[in-house]
Amino acid sequence: RQEATGKDEL
Amino acid sequence: MNIFRLLGDLSHLASIFILLHKIRTTKSCAGISFRSQALYVLVYLTRYLDLLWGPWLLYNTVMKLFFIGSSVYVLYLMKFDYKPSHDMGLDNFKVEYLIGGSFVMALLFNLAFTFDEVMWSFSLWLESVAILPQLFLLQRTGEAETITTHYIFALGAYRALYIPNWLYRWVMEGRVEFIAVFAGIIQTIVYADFFYVYFTKVIQGQKFELPA
Description:
- The structure holds two protein chains of two kinds.
- Chain A is 0% helix and 0% strand.
- Chain A has no helix or strand.
- The mean pLDDT of chain A is 69.
- Chain B starts with a helix and ends with a strand.
- Chain B: InterPro entries: ER_ret_rcpt.
- Chain B: One of its GO terms (molecular function) is ER retention sequence binding.
């Protein structure tokens, strides 16, 4: 789930 | 990282500095919704739970700590240093519905039915409507200081700029996060009326005034 786009955004 | 995301984040940072500048120079938080500010604290605390366990990317971590810290600081300023200037009577939007509705949406739409994932989804839905008490206050006063409108614009532009960022990432990386995108689109639609008045009045050098 870490690779979901939103997870590396603010 | 792409130009849209970077501009979005810079716009978000700018909005906070504009807000702090407004409070400091006018020595007043008149026209600023305490309720919206409190919702942002809740948004950041539930969104950035991963600060507790990582992974800690330098850029993201610094920004997350700044968003949490500055939003708590604004609440502190409003509650203590500039309390008398706070429009208590007019700032009475029922935030319980926003929190409750966001929680229901988070229970229905999440990446996994776990505490952190439900909180992450909750933060996205809540952020999409967290500006409503502020816009409601604007509506009730009928006008706003220009600097306050710059603050609201920069805060709205941040999420609007995330939309081309998501499109870019969808095309370039083949990844898309539907909860974030859908909530982000709702958030931008919530600002639509405000953007319209901002572009047609404030940018032309006129005062932000709503038609009676």
